[in-house]
Amino acid sequence: MSDSPPTPPQELSSDLVESLEGCSAEELRAVERYADALAEYREREARLAEDDQDEVADRPEELPDDVPTRATLTIKEINDNRYYYWQWREGDKVTSKYKGPVEDGE
Matching Pfam families, A to Z (predicted)? Predict the structure, then answer.
């Protein structure tokens, strides 16, 4: 270990460096833990935002905005008529949204 203080990274603002230089060793260790946890959180949020963008890009055009991409298209027969419904699971519940009638020949 060197006898001289470390050189701060150029990416840090001078205000932040001044604040850190005024901290005790105990406070600096707390800052280290907090900064590490905050960095992990921000990286995870960035990954999730990226995944959301991928999901939007992969979204089928006919899928309504209020229907999640994991929904599947099912056919229900009601009174001898056939209808398309979007269906997806929300916890233990299956949610359906009407799409339209099944055309003859489909």
Answer: DUF6788
User: Is 32 inside a domain boundary?
Assistant: yes
Q: How many CA atoms lie within 13 A of 87 on its CB side?
A: 10
Close Cβ partners of 69 (under 8 Å, ≥ 6 residues apart): 55, 58, 59, 60, 63
Q: Is residue 9 part of a domain?
A: no
Q: Are residues 68 and 49 in the same domain?
A: no
Question: Is the separation of the CB atoms in 97 and 67 below 8 Å?
Answer: yes
Q: Which amino acid is at 86?
A: W
For 33, the domain range is 14-57
3 is a domain residue = no
Q: State both tokens at 24.
A: 């005790």
Domain tally, the chain: 2
3-54 pLDDT per residue, tens: 888 999 999 999 999 999 999 999 999 999 999 888 888 888 877 766 555 4
